[in-house]
Amino acid sequence: MCRERRSDRTCMRHPVTMLSLATATPPHILDQAVALEISRDVLGESFGDFERMASVFETAGIQTRQLACPPDWYRTPRDFTEKTAAYLAAADDLFVEVAGKALAAAGLAAADVDTIVTVSTTGIATPSLEARAMRRMDFRQNVARVPVFGLGCAGGVTGLGLAAKLAGATPGSIVLFVTIELCSLTLRTRGTGKADIISTALFGDGAGACILKVGDEGFAEVSASAEKTWPDTLDIMGWEIEAGGFGVVLNRAIPAFARRNMRAAMDEMLGPQNLRVEAVDRFICHPGGAKVVDALELALSLHQGSLDHERATLRDHGNMSAPTALFVLDRVRADALPPVSVLTALGPGFTASTVTLKRAA
Known about the structure:
Elements: E1 11-24, E2 28-31, H1 32-43, H2 50-53, H3 56-59, E3 64-67, H4 80-106, E4 115-119, H5 129-133, E5 144-148, H6 155-169, E6 175-182, H7 194-202, E7 205-214, E8 220-229, E9 237-242, E10 245-250, H8 254-270, E11 282-285, H9 290-299, H10 308-317, H11 324-336, E12 340-347, E13 351-359
Parallel strand pairs: 4-5, 4-6, 11-12
Antiparallel strand pairs: 1-7, 1-8, 2-3, 6-7, 8-13, 9-10, 12-13
């Protein structure tokens, strides 16, 4: 049972369950060797130390990624207008695909949805993505729309927690949560720095969605959610807004930061739930990168290599930002969801986010 304090209400008032979970990726597949070749052609001239940094493509733990556009599209410098057009087109298709899959898996129609929570940080859409999807999906005209921007890699976990709270606030309502990130479209070809090389070696595109509702019909109960934001850490991860669009802010010290701080943060987030780290059957972690996965295993005193589904997701898809955590959760669920698991991710803020899941009986 949760201890509830006014300043720390992490637990759900009503039992909210996940009725379904779906993932989707765009159709264009990028082999990591091809990624290195394209990056060398596009970024090598503007970044003099490219060859010294090139080894990151081999050590990132990635074999393939999926992209919003064909690989050769990225060889030509694009302005923000072109990137935004590509974002809107690809995100629209992914929204319809992944939301449709989640609805079908739950045995529901678009018209059954009462609230849509949409999380995306790699593009700007106004009207937002769920409003655009209404041209192709039969959502009701009175559906509540909750678009969220700025959560970055933590968005899949934080967004799921938000969606669960909205479902719990109105028992009987159906909440659709969708997260879409098209990281490849933020490629910066001018003023290139180390962070750009790392992100080009690491990030891919993808989408995840789930249906939530109060009750016990689902495969897992969302029993609690929590966040921890560290002060004076704005420079660790985020965007710099430039003439060409988004410029990545990505501090190479993230693995060391996670190794030093995640255990205490996890204790702080799980404490109000009367849950200890040792009592968690499986931590389901956002694989920010191979070194981040290693750091999380050390910080949480996990057996080395135990975050196997995280490494497999990274290998097959790269870091897709927010949806990545849902991809890992989907793999864990297919393998057999344990009685108690904690879904977790790190993102801009700098913030750690968790959702505690209990396997349905």
